[in-house]
Amino acid sequence: MVVFEIVIALLLAGAGLTALSRRLGTPYPAMLALAGAALALVPGTPTLVLEPDLALTLFVAPVLLDAAFDSSARDLRANWRSVAGLAVGAVALTVALVAVVARAVVPDMPWAAAVALGAIVAPPDAAAAMAVLGQLRPPHRLLVILEGESLFNDATALLVFRLALGAALAGSVSPVKAIPLLVVVTAGSVVLGYVLSRVIVPLTARIQDVPIAVVVQFCGTFAVWMLAERLHLSGILTVVVFAMASTRAASRSVPARVRVPSYAVWEFAVFVLNVLAFILVGFQLKAILGRIDAATLARYVVVAAAVCAATILARIVWVSGAAAVSRWRCRPAAEGEEPRRDAVGLSPRAAAVVGWCGMRGIVTLAAALALPAGGGGGAAFPYRDLVLFTAFSVVLGTLVVQGLTLRPLMSALRLRDDGEIERELRLARVEALRASVAAAGEAPGDDMSSMLRRRYEVLLRRAEADNAGGAVGADGQEGQRLDVGTDLVRKATAAARSRILALRADGTIGDAAFQRVEQELDREELNFQPLGPDEAAAAR
After folding, report:
1. What are the tens digits of pLDDT across the range 398-431?
2. In terms of domains, do 129 and 99 share one?
3. Same domain as 386, residue 463
4. Looking at residue 456, what is its pLDDT?
5. 336 lies in a domain?
6. pLDDT tens, 477-502?
7. Domain limits at 486?
8. Are residues 301 and 223 in the same domain?
9. Is the pLDDT of residue 375 over 80?
C-alpha cells in the first residue's frame, strides 16, 4: 500500500512538474529526473525491483509505437542517410567510447559489462528534445532527423545490449555467430512487423466501441512485442515496422469517433510510463545508496561523470564529423558550378543543434532496469549497481545540462522554421475543401452567409434533437432533414479524406501536414455525428 500511495503522489507531482516545465520551456523529463533523484534521498522509501524482461516490454513498447505511428515515411526516405548515420554510426561510436572509458576508470569491469553500459546510454530520447524544439519551431528537417533517429537507434543499441548481456552472463559471444545473427534478427523483425500490421489492423478496425478498441490497441502492441521476443527477434524493430505500416491502413479504416479518444489515451499512457520509469529508478537508487559507503559513492560519481562526458562527446564528434564530410562531398566540382545536392548535408548551425540534442530518457532507464539483479537461481549482472547508478546519472546529466541549455542555443544560432509544414498544410486544406465542395454539390443561392447559417442550423437541430431524446416531430420531416445534412457532411468529409490520403500517398504532403488536416476533418465529422444509444446514456 505504501508503494501505491507513493506512486499516486508522484504521478500528481509529475503532472505539476510537467506544467511547470512547459511554463519554463524546459523538457519535462528533466523535471522527472530531478524528482527521481530526490526520491532516492527521501528516508523511508521502499525498494522495488521490476522483473528484467517486463521492464523493456512495459516501458519501451507503447512509447515506441506512439512515436513510430506519427512518423513520416516520406520524410524518413528523404533523410535516410542522416537517420541511419545517427542510428548506427553514432550509437556504435558511443558504445565503443563509453566501454573504453568505463574500463579505464574501472579496470576490473568485464568488457561485456562495459559494452552493455555503452549500449544502455547510447540511444537518445527524442521526446525530451521535441519538448523544447516543438515550442521553438526549428527547420522541419531537424525534427525529422531527430524523430527518425529515435525510432531506430533504440533497436541498434538494444541489439548490442542483448549480445553484451548474454556475454556477461554466459562468459563469451562469438563474433562469427553474432554478425549473421544480427542480420537474421533484423530481416525477420522487419518481415514480422509488416505481416502483423496486415493481420491486426483489419481486425481492430472492425471494433467500434471506444474502450474496447483502446484496450485491444494496447494489448495488440504488447502482443507484437512478446511474439517477436518469443521468436528471438527484435521487439523494438518489429514494433517500429508494425506501427509505420499500420498508420497508413488505420487512416482509412479507423473511424474518427475511435481515433480521437484513442490518441488522447495514448498520450496519457506515454506520460504515465515516463513518470513510472523515473519512480522505479528512484526506488532502486535508494537501495543502492543504502548498500554502499561514502568512498564507493565517490567512485560511482567519478565513473558516472566520465561516462556522461563520453556520451555527450561521442555524439558531438559523430554529428560534426559527418556534417563536415557531407559538406565536403557537396562542394562544387569546379569553380562557378552549383554545389551538388546531398540529403546528408547539415549546416554547421544545424549540426550543432543535432549534436546537442542527445538527452537520454526512458529507453536508457528501461534497459538499466532490465539488468538481472540475481536471486531465484539466476546470476546477477556484474557491476549492476554501478551500471544502474551510471545510467541514471547520464539521463539526469544530459537532461539537465543539454535540456536546459537547448533553448538558449537555438536562440543564439537563430535557426528558424522553414515553413515546409505550413505550405503543405495550406495545400492539403485547399485540396480537401475542393473535394468536399465537389462531393456536397452546389447549394441553392450564392450567399456565403446563408451557407454558413445552414451549416450551423444543422448542428443546432442535431443538438436540439439529442436534447429532446431523439424526438424530431410527428411527421418525421425534421429527422429526415437532419439525416440529409449529416449524410452530406459525411460524404464531404469522406471525399476530403480520400483526397489528403492521395496527396500523402504520392508524396505531395508529409505525415505532419496530413495528421493536422485529419484532426480537422475528425472534428468536423464528430460535430455532425449523432450519438449512439450507449453514448447518449453516458452523456446524460
Report:
1. 988 888 888 888 888 887 777 778 888 888 878 8
2. yes
3. no
4. 53
5. no
6. 555 555 555 666 677 788 888 888 88
7. 421-539
8. yes
9. no
Domain boundary pick from 403, 418, 433: 418
Q: Which of these ranges, 20-34, 38-52, 61-75, has the smallest mean pLDDT? A: 38-52
In the predicted structure, residue 315 carries a pLDDT above the cut 90: yes
C-alpha cell at 491: 460524404
Phi-psi region of 414 (alpha: psi -120 to 50; beta: other; left: phi over 0): left
Which residue, of 399, 418, 437, is where some domain finishes?
Answer: 418
Best CA proximity match to 392, nearest among 415, 357, 360, 421? 360
Q: How far apart are CA 396 and CA 152, in angstroms?
A: 22
533 and 412 within one domain = no
Q: Is 336 exposed, middle or buried (0-12, 13-18, 19+ CB in 10 A)?
A: exposed
What does the alpha-carbon distance between residue 453 and residue 459 come to, in Å, rounded to a whole number?
Answer: 10
Q: Kindly state the DSSP code that residue 90 receives in the 8-state scheme.
A: I
Place of cell 506512486: 7
CATH for 232: 1.20.1530.20
* 63-to-218, 267, 369 alpha-carbon distances in Å: 11, 9, 16
CA 360 distance to own-chain centroid: 13
Residue 80 is assigned to a structural domain of this protein: yes
What DSSP element (H or E) covers 374?
strand 373-375
Q: Which range has highest mean pLDDT (113-127, 443-457, 521-535)?
A: 113-127
Does residue 393 sit in the same domain as residue 511? no
- Domain annotation covers residue 335: no
Selection from 268, 203, 190, 272 nearest residue 234 by Cα: 190
In total, how many domains does the chain have? 2
Q: Looking at the structure, do residues 467 and 368 belong to the same domain, yes or no?
A: no
One-letter identity of residue 391: A
Q: How far apart are CA 314 and CA 307, in angstroms?
A: 10
Helix 235-253 to helix 477-505 angle (10° resolution) is 140
Tell me which residue has cell 569546379.
334
Q: Within this chain, do residues 414 and 428 fall inside the same structural domain, yes or no?
A: no
pLDDT at residue 316, rounded to an integer: 94
Question: CA 226 to CA 220: how far, in whole Å?
Answer: 10
Establish if 233 belongs to a structural domain. yes
Classify residue 255 by its DSSP letter. -
CA–CA dist 172, 248 (Å, integer): 43
| Residues shown for the chain | 540
Residues 325 and 458 in one domain: no
Q: What's the pLDDT tens digit per position in 216-266?
A: 888 999 999 999 989 988 888 899 889 888 887 777 778 888 888 888 888
